[in-house]
Amino acid sequence: MKAMIFAAGLGTRLRPMTDTVPKAMVQVGGQPMLKIVLDRCYQAGIDEVVINVHYLSHIIIEFLATYHRPGMKIYISDESDAILETGGGLLKAKDFFNDGKAFLVANADVLTNIDIRLFFQYHFKFGGIASLAVRNRDSKRKLCFDVQGRLIGRSCGDVRGEEMAFSGYHILQPEIFNYIQKTGKFSITEVYLELCREHAIFAYPHQNDIWIDIGTIEKWEEANQIYTASRHLF
């Protein structure tokens, strides 16, 4: 199985830590976040990973030169010239996903013990072009899913459904690249909102999992506490 890990973020809200290290290399519980995410992928049977890099990319590349897991191959998608956000970054790496099989996309700045194997099983069961891990949590960017769990838009309005927040983990079918019309720098979430009118994109609720975005110093401190106390769950 294959995966892409987004590791190009600047991490401006984590300064001064990210003055000298990229966001993906900020340590939680004494380990770089990128290592934690890679280990989770490896445990789930993912053996090929592409990682996009931008800010202080040499630090990530140096780390990856020391990271070895039997049978796992890791590749770099270099965005040094210009950061492309999630959609543009994924599109740049599309040739990596040329085997016709579903693949995982994950954010390097999200600490979660989501069961990746179960996530893939769910995705195959429902057969959508994409499945998005979601939770009921505070967010200004919630998505609406109808009673069948299909994405229908940003807000439910008068439609029966549930608004949930995207967790930064998703599984995609490679044919999604046939429908992406945008180029350059853009968000994959905006692509989902466009494609859901004609293609099935499903929610994967994982409310009982640990999940925290380490986007701020406060969240990073919380993540350290959670990871230290629950290391056995990762």
What's the helix and strand layout?
Elements: E1 2-6, E2 27-28, E3 31-32, H1 33-43, E4 48-53, H2 57-64, E5 73-78, H3 85-92, E6 103-107, E7 110-112, H4 116-126, E8 130-135, E9 143-146, E10 151-153, E11 161-172, H5 188-195, E12 201-205, E13 211-213, H6 217-229
Parallel strand pairs: 1-4, 1-6, 4-5, 8-12
Antiparallel strand pairs: 2-3, 6-11, 7-13, 8-11, 9-10, 9-11
Helix pairs in contact: 3-5
Describe the structure.
- The protein has a single domain (2-233), classed as Spore Coat Polysaccharide Biosynthesis Protein SpsA, Chain A (Alpha-Beta Complex), CATH 3.90.550.10.
- The chain is built from six helices and 13 strands.
- It has helices at 33-43, 57-64, 85-92, 116-126, 188-195, 217-229, and strands at residues 2-6, 27-28, 31-32, 48-53, 73-78, 103-107, 110-112, 130-135, 143-146, 151-153, 161-172, 201-205, 211-213.
- A hairpin with a 4-residue loop joins strand 9 (143-146) and strand 10 (151-153).
- Helix 3 packs across helix 5.
- The two termini are 20 Å apart.
